[in-house]
Amino acid sequence: MTKTQLLYNVAQILIPWSTLLFMRKQDIKRYSFAGFVIVAFEIINHIIGYKRNWWTFYGKKKSFFTNELPFSIGAYMPLSMWLLKFYFGDFKKFMLANAISDGTFAFVIIKILKRIKVIKLNMSYPMFFVYLYFKAPLLYAVQYIVEKKKLFVG
Question: Could you confirm whether the keyword Transmembrane appears in this record (predicted)?
């Protein structure tokens, strides 16, 4: 693993998780279950992507734990929790916010990661966007069920 990749892996975990310091404890409790479910689902997706070579990591041995896992446990849960905090209750705005965040990653950030030799896609950018975006309704549905059943609500 190169120094750039190591720094990126550490940053992609620490920076998003540190933003939760600015979220109220009640909101963390309220949205953490849905965030956890989406991370578990994303790990399954990453395992599939790993086996099907949907992406290639530069300069690393092919290892799920040093390549895909930091992406799974990095921004997904904190970002999911923030999106739920700001947009849960308005499905259209929630989906739009997800489209913007997923589009930014799929069409901008992933190109930067390719340029700095962290990862390159073996699929088109629009397909990668679909790969990211299709999880948004699942996240919303899980939170809807949590709210309806009054589970974990702070």
Answer: yes
